[in-house]
């Protein structure tokens, strides 16, 4: 449950990353310290920065740079990979086509998902079946993003082992039938800057993405280094800025982890408000459960919350489909 936090903590996860494959990782003093910090951050804010994550800063920057190059292209070029239901909701959407709670968002984006082959999940997966649409221009876009996704997937798995320990379980609570075949989502996003006094008079013109929570387990946000736009809401309703810190990811937990934790951890509301005149890019990676995972509170979390289930059972794929089928103007 979120508190009246005023800032977002920074956690050096390098001890966790180093020991993550060690069966005795929970006994390591460095890991124990990281686990305590993760527990505190997930309880109090649902958001935290991570440093010491091991993903090269050069790759983090290359991903943002190639994203900027794509959004600089003419609309006619970008629309070649247009998102539609027929593409499994993969591809490009222009400014205003993404909807949050009924209101168009002032951003453009490419949406990518772990690919689902025909029939893989039966009726549950039908909506999301398809292959990702990668632009041919700029060159090397697909290869760079796929390398990035692989590294983010590995890092997220390691952080989730720390969160599993923080909840009082084994490091492997979120593997196997829960997230052993973790689904993932990649949103490659561009937020136009304010164009002048006209925009300033209409605050809705700079709501890049309206207030929302994320769907899955864990999000890694790679944001531009020189524009503060991400905001997180505390318990009193104040919007707390999450300014970029070079070399870090902003991490937050999602709806499925809130359910698993039986409400011990919060999937906190957040939004994007780009008040800068500069165009802002952001690449958000979402680490999810298995697509067909049936999500319900962990026994260890029910024990910590008086044996009462705060949430019913949810199937991640159903949750995702319910969101994507209402999130876009076609």
UniProtKB/TrEMBL annotation:
One Pfam family cited in the UniProt record for this chain: DIOX_N
Compartments it resides in: Cytoplasm, Cytosol
Keyword Cytoplasm found: yes
Recorded catalytic activity of this chain's protein: L-homoarginine + 2-oxoglutarate + O2 = 6-hydroxy-L-homoarginine + succinate + CO2
Presence of the UniProt keyword Cytoplasm in the record: yes
Location of the Fe2OG dioxygenase domain: 181-289
Entry keywords, A to Z: Cytoplasm, Dioxygenase, Iron, Metal-binding, Oxidoreductase
Cited InterPro entries: DIOX_N, IPNS-like_FE2OG_OXY, IPNS-like_sf, Iron_ascorbate_oxido_reductase, Oxoglu/Fe-dep_dioxygenase_dom
GO annotations of cellular component type: cytosol
One function term, GO molecular function aspect: 2-oxoglutarate-dependent dioxygenase activity
Record family assignment: Belongs to the iron/ascorbate-dependent oxidoreductase family.
Protein name: Fe2OG dioxygenase domain-containing protein
Species of provenance: Citrus sinensis (Sweet orange)
């Amino acid at each position: 449950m979120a508190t009246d936090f005023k800032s977002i903590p920074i956690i050096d996860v390098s001890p966790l990353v180093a020991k993550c494959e060690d069966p005795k990782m929970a006994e390591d003093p460095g890991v124990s310290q990281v686990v305590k910090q993760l527990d505190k951050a997930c309880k109090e804010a649902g958001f935290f920065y991570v440093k010491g994550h091991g993903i090269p800063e050069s790759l983090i920057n290359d991903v943002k740079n190639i994203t900027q190059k794509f959004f600089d292209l003419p609309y006619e070029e970008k629309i070649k990979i247009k998102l539609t239901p027929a593409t499994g909701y993969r591809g490009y959407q222009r400014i205003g086509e993404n909807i949050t709670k009924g209101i168009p968002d002032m951003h453009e984006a490419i949406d990518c998902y772990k690919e689902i082959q025909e029939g893989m999940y039966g009726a549950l997966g039908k909506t999301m079946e398809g292959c990702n649409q990668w632009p041919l221009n700029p060159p090397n876009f697909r290869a760079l993003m796929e390398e990035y996704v692989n590294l983010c997937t590995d890092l997220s798995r390691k952080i989730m082992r720390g969160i599993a320990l923080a909840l009082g379980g084994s490091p492997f609570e979120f593997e196997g039938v829960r997230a052993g075949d973790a689904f993932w989502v990649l949103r490659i996003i561009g937020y136009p800057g304010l164009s002048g006094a006209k925009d300033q008079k209409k605050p809705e013109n700079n709501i890049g993405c309206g207030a929302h929570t994320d769907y899955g387990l864990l999000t890694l946000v790679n944001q531009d280094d020189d524009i503060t736009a991400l905001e997180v809401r505390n318990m009193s309703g104040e919007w707390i800025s999450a300014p970029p810190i070079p070399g870090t990811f902003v991490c937050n937990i999602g709806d499925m982890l809130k359910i698993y934790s039986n409400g011990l951890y919060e999937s906190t509301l957040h939004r994007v408000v780009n008040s800068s005149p500069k165009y802002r890019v952001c690449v958000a990676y979402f680490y999810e459960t298995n697509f067909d995972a049936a999500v319900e509170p962990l026994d260890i979390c029910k024990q910590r919350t008086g044996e009462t289930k705060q949430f019913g059972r949810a199937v991640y794929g159903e949750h995702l489909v319910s969101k994507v089928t209402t999130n876009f103007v076609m």
